[in-house]
């Protein structure tokens, strides 16, 4: 499947293999808050009506209003409150008011905010590596396509129809790609999106992602980018956050781990898919990168 995907952003999202775990409509009124610090999952939120304040661990607080969308690829803790937060008194208790519907705040207060909130998971064996290529948070305002996608995901999550799992996977892939490409790349930290915003680096990234099994070198990538070798090396490391061949190896190992988990190819076949001339060369590279052999990794995944 990856062989036909040449766009770097699409290939990363596809390899992440996103799957929905929770989708709910949150309604809130009065002064309210909800707080959790025991999470480790991708999170997205679309404000349908009203507004709120979100504080994500390690990030500056963000005020959201109707039409705003946020995506956090790796959420560990957050506090969401009314725009005027209540007095600190511990986390609020959400009240289930129906299938996929949650109420926050005093029961007698009129609804002042509605939001569609989703948690998902990445099923890729190399998800931590792939997530490290993405920004910590995306905040987009007034993006009609994103705001239209979230209710469709919510509806499909609640339904029990044929093809539900596959449809949700594809909808989440579209949601992630749409959100990631909608952010202002100039404001992004070092990573894939910032690299793709530079046409020269984008050409090199395209080569890496479309031809992981080919012969790739810094000199060849610099030529693709139309830059000197030294200039390309420094710019790639600054904008992407890692050296060119380190990135190449990371991407190759992400593909290799997925293929090993699938268990359909021999080590030699995987080696050729990810740019190594022999099973032994691939095995040594895998051990250096992962701390164990391909066989040990595949055996653990099958148990």
Can you put this structure into words, describing what you see?
A hairpin with a 5-residue loop joins strand 4 and strand 5 (62-65). A 7-stranded mixed sheet has the order 8-9-1-10-3-6-11. The chain is built from 12 helices and 11 strands. It is elongated. With 303 residues, the chain is of the alpha+beta class.
Task: Please write out the topology.
Blueprint: H1 8-16, E1 18-29, E2 33-36, E3 41-49, E4 51-56, E5 62-65, E6 68-75, E7 78-81, E8 95-98, E9 101-104, E10 111-122, H2 127-131, E11 138-141, H3 144-158, H4 164-182, H5 192-196, H6 199-210, H7 218-225, H8 229-240, H9 244-262, H10 267-273, H11 279-290, H12 294-302
Parallel strand pairs: 1-9
Antiparallel strand pairs: 1-10, 2-7, 3-6, 3-10, 4-5, 4-7, 6-11, 8-9
Helix pairs in contact: 1-4, 3-4, 6-7, 7-8, 10-11
Give descriptors for this structure.
44% helix; elongated; 23% strand; 303 residues; four-stranded antiparallel beta sheet; alpha+beta; single chain; 11 strands; seven-stranded mixed beta sheet
What order do the helices and strands follow? HEEEEEEEEEEHEHHHHHHHHHH
Q: Please give the radius of gyration in angstroms.
A: 22 Å
Strand-pairing-aware structural class: alpha+beta
Helix content: 40-55%
Low-confidence stretches: none
Strand content: 15-25%
Side-by-side strand order of the widest sheet: 8-9-1-10-3-6-11
Largest sheet: 7 strands, mixed
Instruction: Report the average pLDDT across residues.
Output: 90
Q: What's the shape?
A: elongated
According to DSSP, the number of beta strands is: 11
């Amino acid at each position: 499947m990856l062989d036909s995907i040449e766009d770097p952003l699409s290939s990363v999202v596809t390899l992440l293999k996103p799957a929905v775990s929770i989708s709910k409509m949150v309604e809130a009124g009065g002064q309210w808050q909800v707080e959790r610090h025991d999470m480790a999952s991708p999170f997205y939120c679309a404000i349908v009506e009203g507004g709120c304040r979100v504080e994500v661990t390690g990030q500056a607080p963000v005020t959201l209003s109707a039409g705003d969308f946020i995506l956090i690829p790796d959420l560990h803790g957050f506090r969401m409150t009314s725009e005027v937060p209540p007095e600190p008194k511990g986390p609020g208790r959400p009240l289930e008011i129906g299938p996929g519907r949650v109420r926050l705040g005093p029961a007698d207060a009129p609804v002042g905010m509605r939001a569609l909130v989703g948690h998902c998971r990445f099923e890729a064996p190399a998800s931590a590596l792939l997530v490290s290529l993405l920004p910590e948070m995306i905040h987009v305002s007034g993006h009609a396509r994103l705001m239209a996608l979230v209710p469709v995901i919510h509806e499909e999550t609640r339904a029990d129809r044929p093809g539900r799992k596959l449809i949700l996977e594809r909808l989440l892939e579209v949601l992630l790609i749409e959100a990631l490409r909608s952010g202002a790349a100039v404001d992004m930290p070092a990573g894939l999106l910032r690299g793709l915003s530079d046409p020269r680096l984008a050409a090199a990234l395209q080569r890496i992602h479309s031809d992981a099994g080919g012969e790739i070198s810094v000199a060849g990538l610099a030529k693709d980018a139309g830059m000197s070798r030294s200039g390309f090396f420094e710019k790639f490391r600054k904008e992407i956050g890692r050296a060119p061949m380190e990135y190449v190896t990371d991407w190759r190992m992400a593909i290799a781990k997925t293929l090993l988990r699938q268990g359909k190819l021999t080590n030699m076949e995987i080696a050729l898919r990810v740019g190594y001339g022999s099973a032994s060369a691939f095995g040594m590279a895998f051990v250096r990168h992962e701390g164990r052999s391909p066989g040990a990794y595949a055996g653990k995944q099958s148990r």
